[in-house]
Amino acid sequence: MNTPVSSTAKESSPRLRLAHRCSAPTSPAKNLTFYNKVIWITGASSGIGSALARHLAAQGARLILSSRRIEKLEQLRTELINSLQHQVFQLDLEQPEALYTRVQNAISDWGPIDILINNAGIAQRSRVLETQLAVDRRIMEINFFGTVAMTKAILPSMVARGAGQIMTVGSVAGKIGSQTRSSYSASKHALNGYMDSLRAEVWHNGVHVQLACPGWVNTDIGKGALDGDGNALADKVGTIDFGISAEDCAQDIATALLMHRDETIIGRGWVRMAPALKRIFPSLVNRIMRRKVYR
Ligand SMILES: NC(=O)c1ccc[n+]([C@@H]2O[C@H](COP(=O)([O-])OP(=O)(O)OC[C@H]3O[C@@H](n4cnc5c(N)ncnc54)[C@H](OP(=O)(O)O)[C@@H]3O)[C@@H](O)[C@H]2O)c1
Q1: For 147-201, what is each residue's pLDDT tens digit?
Q2: What is the pTM of this model?
């Protein structure tokens, strides 16, 4: 005898729940333009962040520029197209305690955030045996916990509106570890996993979580990189002049935002192929990485 299925039982069947979720109207809406979008960029005072600011301002976005060096941000703001419609917000990701309240105040002053670009980060140039634990912690604090704190400060307002994009700048180093980059690589791997989980959690709230993984980009990141004692390398390292330009990287990140790509690898040659190669032939890539020592 067939037992009648109650409507409540029908609604709670896993297949129906899945179908309902797949057609949920709150999946992230596609952005076809940056015009008038409010975009918060961390790490805007130099490199990829500054290039992103120039690119997005030229497309009509309204920007909030963040980092520690407020004078650099102010200078950038005045150079941008429509300079008066952009804001500067001083932020130290190493001190995230007051961040939540400050960000809520900023949102009430400047309106809801359409796109958060978690770009700020620092690098490392030291072998594991020569790196103090405090340095490992500091890199994780800024690159991982700072980014998590910023994301948690913005996310509730995006979920409440049922719309938003959170783009995090990871790295190819977040896919493959290399010598002298242990904690940097760990921080970017951690962001990778965190953002994958968050994407799965908030997709049905209309928020799209994205990751951009550049390879080498020609910026001054090496100058701020920490040695094993926690000192910035400053002029002891050169620029990454063999990498792609910050402008090209910014253009690819902007395209990934418009195309709503979950994840994008940015760069050329070996670095672009490396993450896929590592998945398919891990031992081969591990052998290659034993021989490569990046400066
Ligand atoms: N360049 C590359 O080859 C490359 C490759 C892959 C991924 N990436 C990633 O791309 C992002 C940008 O790097 P970049 O190459 O443009 O380097 P960059 O020129 O050194 O820029 C780093 C930015 O992060 C900010 N920042 C550093 N520490 C901070 C803190 N405690 N609080 C707030 N802001 C902080 C800096 O601003 P202030 O000093 O003013 O605070 C600066 O604006 C980073 O996440 C990096 O890991 C870079």
Answers
A1: 999 999 999 999 999 999 999 999 999 999 999 999 999 999 999 999 999 999 9
A2: 0.91
The rounded distance, in Å, linking the Cα atoms of 187 and 32 is: 32
Q: Which of 70, 119, 185, 265 to mutate to test the pocket of ligand 1 (most atoms within 8 A of CB)?
A: 119
- Reduced to 3 states (helix: H, G, I; strand: E, B; else coil), residue 117 is strand
CA distance linking residue 36 with residue 174, whole number of Å? 32
Residue 12 pLDDT greater than 50, yes or no: no
Q: Domain-by-domain residue ranges, the chain?
A: 29-291
Helical residues (DSSP H) of 12-92, grouped into ranges: 14-22, 47-58, 70-79
Q: Name the residue with higher pLDDT: 260 or 236.
A: 260
Residue 100 catalytic?
no
Q: Under a CB-based contact definition with an 8 Å cutoff, are residues 178 and 130 in contact?
A: no
Region for residue 283 given its phi and psi (left: phi exceeds 0; alpha: psi -120 to 50; beta: otherwise) = alpha
C-alpha of residue 48 to centroid of ligand 1, in Å:
7
- Determine the average pLDDT of the residues in 271-290: 94
Bridge partner list, 242: none
For the chain, what is the total number of helices (H) and then of strands (E)? 12, 9
Ligand 1 atom closest to residue 69's alpha carbon, by position in its atom list? 40
| Burial tier of 56 (Cβ tally within 10 Å: 0-12, 13-18, 19+) | buried
- Give, in words, the CATH class of 29-291: alpha beta
**pLDDT score of 4 more than 70:** no
